[in-house]
Amino acid sequence: YGFKKDDILIGCMQSFFKIYGDFEDMIKKILENTQSNVYILFCNSIPFNKMHLYRLNNKLKHNINRIKWFQNKNMIDWLNLVYICDFMIDPHPFGGCNTSLEAFDYDIPVVCYPSNMINGKFTEGFYKVMGIDLCIVQSEQEYYNCVKKLILDIDFRNNIKLMIKRNKYKLFEQKEVISEYEDLFVKLIDKHYVN
Question: Which of 41-50, 65-74, 120-129 has the highest mean pLDDT?
């Protein structure tokens, strides 16, 4: 992908409709206050629209060059992009779900700032299942501080990666969840089934 070994790659592999103005301000703050080898990767199957790109360009100015855009990747290319990220950021307030699971599968930390939207709670829930809370934040300032720490403190980042590696089985190997879904669907069918 043309990056250098010492580049810091922050994944934000989300559809454009998840990227709100306040979150764009956070991206601006991150890029304005970090070294020039920090990049944010956007990759999604729905392209950013013209107005959104115009707004980002006006907001980020010269730092727009530190946003790297990837569109319509097949599954292998998508997972390769996830894999090369040093960590990911969840867009507030919309949040992520599948992308967070894909990151955790590669032991990649995801900074999340939970919201009251159901979509804004998935990553927090995944972390709680794993018993990890170091990347769950409660404010924009905490979000920025966590991102900055993940950029600057390799030991901190590696410690979270190790914690994810040791605990991700709790997300991916829960047979009880399958049984609970089966029971739920049987109950719903029985409740609404008319003879």
Answer: 120-129
Distant-in-sequence, close-in-space partners of 41: CB < 8 Å, separation ≥ 6:
9, 10, 11, 12, 13, 68, 70, 81, 85
Please state, in angstroms and rounded to a whole number, the distance separating the CA atoms of residues 39 and 173.
33
Q: Is 35 helix (H, G, I), strand (E, B) or coil?
A: coil
Cis ω on the peptide bond leading into residue 47 (within 30° of 0)?
Answer: no
Q: Measured on CA atoms in the order 13, 141, 65, 87, is the torsion positive or negative? A: negative
- Report H helices in 10-139: 21-32, 50-60, 75-84, 98-105, 122-130
**7: CB partners within 8 A, 6+ apart:** 37, 38, 39
Residue type at 165 in one-letter notation = K
Chain-centre distance of CA 158, in angstroms? Answer: 17
Average pLDDT of span 62-80: 87
Among 31, 54, 51, CA closest to 41: 31
Q: Which residue has the higher pLDDT, 130 or 74?
A: 130
**Mean pLDDT calculated for residue range 145-165:** 97
- Written as one letter, the residue type at 102 is E
